[in-house]
Specification:
Layout (H helix, E strand, L loop, with lengths): L4 H5 L2 H40 L1
Length: 52
């Protein structure tokens, strides 16, 4: 099976797929970062509660 990679990546369908995939990755990374920030806040609140 031979595939002309240059022709394949020039197709608009590939561009749409790539943009969508990058968007999904960015959204996932943003979600993970937000969860990490929330977790840090919860950890700090727990430490504060235990030290009172």
């Amino acid at each position: 099976l031979k595939v002309d990679i240059k022709a394949f990546i020039q197709k608009p369908q590939f561009e749409h797929y790539l943009i969508g995939d990058l968007g999904r990755s960015f959204n996932a990374l943003a979600s993970i970062k937000l969860r990490e920030e929330r977790l840090d806040i919860i950890k700090d609140e727990i430490k504060e509660y235990l030290n009172d």
